[in-house]
Amino acid sequence: MAANQHPVRLRVDPVACDGIGICTHLAPTLITVDSWGFPIVAGHPLSKRDRKSADAAIAACPRRALFLDDLPN
User: Fold this and answer.
1) Residue 64: pLDDT band with limits 50, 70, 90
2) pLDDT class of 4 with cuts at 50, 70, 90
3) Does residue 1 have a pLDDT over 90?
4) Which of 2, 8, 23, 52 could form a disulfide with 57 if both were Cys (CB 3.0 to 4.6 A apart)?
5) Where do the structural domains in the chain lie, given as residue ranges?
6) Is the confidence at residue 21, as pLDDT, over 90?
């Protein structure tokens, strides 16, 4: 992780999410779906590669239900 980047993790707002599933296609290593089609996100700090996938999923989410949370250093 670059010195100027803080560690982050991907988070989903389950109330805002409609289970459309675009995120699972854009970030398949970070997001799986439950039996109802709603996302389950990995809670680990994101690598540089994972961050690119997470950013793409966040940008494409029509319900704006995905976020990045800063983690303590």
Assistant:
1) very high
2) low
3) no
4) 23
5) 8-70
6) yes
Angle at 69 between CA 63 and CA 58, to 5 degrees: 30
Please tell me the distance from the alpha carbon of residue 19 to that of residue 38, in angstroms, as a whole number.
4
- DSSP symbol at 37: S
> What CA–CA distance (Å, rounded) separates 8 from 5?
9
Q: Are strands 8-12 and 66-70 parallel, antiparallel or unpaired?
A: antiparallel
Residues listed for the chain? 73
d(CA 17, CA 41): 12
Res 18 pLDDT > 80: yes
Going by the DSSP 8-state scheme, the letter that residue 40 receives in this structure is E
* CATH fold for the domain made of 8-70: Alpha-Beta Plaits (3.30.70)
